[in-house]
Amino acid sequence: MQIGENFQPHDRLSAAELRLMAMRQQQQIDTQQQMLAAKEQRLRFLKTQESRATVTLAETERLHRLRERVEAQESKLRRLRALRGQVDLQKTYNVTLGNDLDSIRALFSEKEKELTLAVAKVEALTRQLEDLRRNRRGGIGSHGFIAQNTSNGVISPAAKELEKLRLELQYRNQLSLQQNARLNMQREVLQQRQMELNSVDKRIVELQSRIHKKRNLNVQNYKVQASKDDPSEQQNNNPSAAASNVTLHMRSASTNSISPSVRSLSRGNIVAVEPFSHVPTKSLLGGPSFAPSQAAMPVPNDKLFQNSMTQTVFDKPDPIKHQNQPVQHLRHPQQKLQQQQHKYQSQQQLQQPVQQQS
């Protein structure tokens, strides 16, 4: 019993130590679990940041590509406007050349009439000269005196006038030849300029068709990319994105509805912000006209027309402006349809004064 009593305190101490060790190990396990949870939370945070960084990088790259496309289209439009200005200057120059040719034709016809009169006068004088020569050969008395005067070097006034008319006839012939050569050169230059104008018109039509196709393709791509966005993020964003979506849709609809009327305009007209006065082409040299087959429609000097045309022809949705506003669909389709009808009616009201003026 004494021995058991001696070992009893030692056993109690060992059990207390074991309890302390168990408590310490439990605390270490709890701290390690807390550290593990903190590390897992940090890892999730880093993963979300990495995904956001990749998304923002893709968005910036896409916006950079869209900016490059917009700049390329703007440079093409500037070149197209410059070509249109050159074509209009060339047309005015051709009109002035045609007027000069008409005046030269009138002068040439007058000179031809004067030349025919001079030729008739020369023929009459030659007949008179032949009569005088016959009279001089077969004449006696006074006719012998006339022959003696001519043999002495005295020239009759009829011979002087005949020589003068002959020289004038030679001068008129040379002048008519020079004028004919000048007219032929001007005709060749005019034909060459008209061929250049036709080639420039074809190039302008080709560039217009390319720009229209690229604009439609960009609008379609923008709509597809906007439709692929997350609807949950769309509901949390600014509600003004719905209005921007409706305006974008109506702009594309108005562009598609007005583009045939714009294409029906003559290639000589400029559909731009500034007013333009078109000079109608006319057939030069009496031949067929080289004007385009479409009817030329002058552009009126109207601010409303300019604003509507610039909004429909050259206006397109700006992806940079709406980069922070994702597309958000309306909850009620009927309300969306009513807003679209209202926008379309306003566009039609803007187009009515243009059609009345044309």
Please tell me about this protein's structure.
The chain is an all-alpha fold and 358 residues long. It has a domain of 130 residues. 80% of the residues lie in helices and 0% in strands. The longest helix has 137 residues.
Give a quick precis of the structure.
The protein has 358 residues and is mainly alpha-helical. It is 80% helix and 0% strand. This is Putative apoptosis-stimulating of p53 protein 1.
Question: Helical proportion?
Answer: over 70%
Query: How many strands, which pairing sense, and closed or not: the largest β-sheet?
Result: none
Which class best fits the helix and strand makeup? mainly alpha
Strand content: under 5%
Biased composition (Low complexity): 335-358
Region (Disordered): 220-241, 314-358
Protein name: Putative apoptosis-stimulating of p53 protein 1
Keywords: ANK repeat, Coiled coil, Nucleus, Repeat
Question: Which SSEs are present, and which pair or pack?
Answer:
Blueprint: H1 2-138, H2 142-151, H3 157-227, H4 231-236, H5 240-263, H6 303-314, H7 333-357
Helix pairs in contact: 1-2, 1-3, 5-7
GO biological process, one term: regulation of apoptotic process
Biased composition (Low complexity): 335-358
Subcellular location: Nucleus
Q: What would the keywords be for this entry?
A:
single chain; 358 residues; mainly alpha; 0% strand; Putative apoptosis-stimulating of p53 protein 1; nucleus; ASPP1/2
